[in-house]
Design brief:
The structure holds 2 protein chains of 2 kinds. Chain A is mostly helical. Chain A has one domain: Up-down Bundle (3 helical TM bundles of succinate and fumarate reductases), CATH 1.20.1300. Chain A has 5 helices and no strands. Chain A is elongated and about 75 Å long. The termini of chain B are far apart. Chain B is built from 4 helices and no strands. By secondary structure, chain B is mostly helical. Chain B is extended and about 70 Å long. Chain B has one domain: Fumarate reductase/succinate dehydrogenase, transmembrane subunit (3 helical TM bundles of succinate and fumarate reductases). The longest helix of chain B is centred in the N-terminal third of the chain and has 32 residues. Classes of the chains: A mainly alpha, B mainly alpha. At the A-B interface, α2, α3, α4 and α5 of A face α1, α2, α3 and α4 of B.
Chain lengths: 128, 135
């Protein structure tokens, strides 16, 4: 038999007290992605052909490079938060769940680094 | 104080998903998650494409060869639909978050509108992409 008071037994069992940041981050990145994704798709459509030099020159324009990096950050962040919730909701076994959450987080960090660095490398290589 | 002996070890659970009638609202909600997961892989492809472009002409040509192959095109068309669906339904969610559109009738209409808009936008996107109307 526990010597804890009834109050002591239930304290801390409810809401984890965190999660608001996650919720807000998901919405903020969603709002950021509205113009960024539309801009990206319309830009792709405007290319007559996606040839190497044309696309390289396009990425290298400073405004485009900045917007692309913002797109990568917002997209990867949104994807990280979203897939995390999917795993939390459907993977119940503690081991696989933790493992998948760790893998997801690391993959998303790697994606963000790769995407940002790729834009930087394209932009610095292009002869202006 | 110990609980009465007759008490079941685990309390009965409230009814779960299977007792509810399948309807448009939950179908669209599930579709939002599914398209989101698909788009996570689309993000992977986007970063892969940028890396190929950064790696040079040969890698970029290889990436475009994959993307313009039959499976590549199928994936791109699928991702485009997923994107437009997730985009439109995401806007619907943002309106809900702001407190609008909760009425049953409105939510149903906006849901159907999202499916229609996503389908139309996907078709328009690919017609423009393949015929080069812009330019």
């Amino acid at each position: 038999m526990s010597l804890k008071s009834p109050l002591g037994r239930v304290l801390g069992l409810g809401s984890s007290g965190t999660g608001t940041e996650h919720w807000v981050g998901q919405r903020l990145s969603a709002i950021a992605l509205v113009p960024l994704t539309l801009w990206f798709l319309l830009s792709l459509l405007a290319f007559p052909a996606l040839d190497f030099y044309a696309v390289t020159a396009w990425v290298a324009a400073p405004l485009h490079a900045v917007l692309l990096v913002l797109l990568v950050i917002a997209l990867v962040y949104h994807s990280s938060l979203g897939t995390q919730v999917v795993v939390e909701d459907y993977v119940h076994a503690p081991g696989p769940r933790t493992l998948m959450l760790i893998i997801l987080r690391l993959v998303h960090i790697a994606l963000a680094v790769a995407g940002i660095l790729a834009v930087f490398l394209i932009a610095t290589r292009a002869p202006l | 104080m110990s609980p009465p002996v007759s008490r079941p070890r685990s309390p009965p659970l409230s009814p779960h998903l299977q007792v509810y009638r399948w309807q448009i609202s939950n179908t669209l909600s599930i579709l939002h998650r599914l398209t989101g997961v698909a788009l996570a892989f689309g993000g992977l492809a986007l970063v892969g494409w940028l890396l190929a472009l950064a790696s040079g002409q040969a890698a970029y040509a290889a990436a475009n060869w994959v993307l313009t192959s039959f499976p590549g095109q199928a994936f791109l068309i699928g991702w485009t639909f997923c994107f437009f669906y997730h985009f439109c339904n995401g806007l619907r969610h943002l309106f809900w978050d702001a407190g609008f559109g909760f009425d049953k009738a409105v939510a149903r209409k906006s849901g159907l509108a999202v499916v229609a808009a996503a389908s139309v936008l996907t078709v328009i996107f690919w017609v423009v992409a393949l015929t080069g109307v812009v330019e």
